[in-house]
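Human: Not sure, check this?
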Amino acid sequence: MAAKFFYVQLSLSLTSDGWLCNSVEEFEPLGLKLLRNYLKLPVWPVGPLLPSSMLGHKSQSSSISRVIAAERAGKKPGLSAEKCTEWLNSHVPDSVLYISFGSQNTISASQMKAVAVGIEASGKPFIWVVRPPLGFDMKGEFRSEWLPEGFERRVMESNQGLLVRTWAPQLEILSHKSTRAFLSHCGWNSVIESLSQGVPIIGWPMVAEQAYNSKMMVEEMGVCMELARGVEDEIEADHVKRVVEIAMENVGTGEDMKRKAVEIGEKIGAAMRNDGEERGSTLKALDEFVTTILSS
């Protein structure tokens, strides 16, 4: 179904006079160059399509307006932004793992238990957006039986973990100073949101172009390491523990991923610069788009 949807959209887009992309020129120069060479059309990267308040420095209490908790989607979080921020405030900077597979994806029951055992064993604090596993209604009520016995009680009592049902205020979480890494399905919106905040990614691509997003972040950018791929990939708790520890450590691979993610975040922020003397690449692209429209 997803492949058919993308095929139709891409086929129709080839008949257009130009492309507007939720990206940044400095973020993926190779991809934009190849796209222009293939299309022979104007391509204007006008991203990041994020609230301007997300493009500043991360703060301990999160300076983003609480209105952003609704996060462009009109959805009601399973836990309020205030509660998430309060929990994040109880942890030191760069210590928390955020886990979410997007609004359209979930994992199998066995994968869910492996993730739970692995992150608990790692000892790393985490916020996990939980949804019913494959084979159940994703919009239905989440049941604790899908997790190891006593898991939710233990992590809550120790303050190691916070489980959020169905949907979380993602922008609030990623922009918080305590958030260190993001275990993600590598959907494009999540990629942009995470890297704009200098948060590296543990990849678990599921469908559509997500595997390519992950591949780019691993091989070209150095801001991601993959945990698994798809819903059929059987994983072990020890593997989850090991990957989480590596990605969140302050030496070696984890340190490199964080440094490179921060550098990319600075490039994304610079694309929106408008200091009077110099305009960022995104604003220049918007200027070019408007000029093209007015002259056509």
Remarks:
- The first strand starts at residue 19 and ends at 21.
- Confidence is low (pLDDT under 50) at residues 60-69.
